Amino acid sequence: MPHSPQPLREPGAGRSPDRPDPPPLRVRTGIDVAEVARVEKLMASQPGLREQVFTPRELAYCDRRRRTGEHLAGRWAVKEAVLKCLGTGMTPSMEWTDIEVVNDRGGRPRVRLHGEAESLAQALGMHHIDISLSHSGGLAVAHAVVVCPADPPGTAPGSGPPTRQTPDTAPHSTPTAEGDDRHEA
Fold this sequence. Notes:
With 185 residues, the chain is an alpha+beta fold. Helix content is 28%, strand content 22%. The protein contains five helices and five strands, in the order βααααββαββ. It has helices at residues 36-45, 49-53, 56-63, 68-86, 115-124; strands at residues 25-35, 99-103, 109-113, 128-136, 139-149. It has a three-stranded antiparallel β-sheet with strand order 1-5-4. Strands 2-3 form a two-stranded antiparallel sheet.
């Protein structure tokens, strides 16, 4: 077996000795697929369900699109994928509208968290959430990735559930085309 080459620099070379190593990070993922026809049927058969699942901003965006059902199904799938990242599913105190899909100025979909979903993300010490969504062939698929510390804030390594973060350590907002001052992950 050939000998592996030596590194060009010593490990830690160039790092300030008084600067601590960054904390280890954990990546949590979630994925979901939604059938467009099923979402359309649910929305048509249950009056008021659209407003229970989607925010006014999400509905306005989707209703402006030629294939409204595809966009609604995509947002539905994002909400499910984010819940999988959070590791909780829908809790009794959570609303579907606690997870909102918005588009940034370039049109890229982003997630804004509100209410219980935002509290859960803060308890995890979430640094960032990224999503990708697509629709084709009557299906909408969404993938969500959350980056958070290996040990959430307020916990000792390997200890019990996390405690809630303070506002100064919460994830930062990103400007969106829709605008709003609510928290965006």
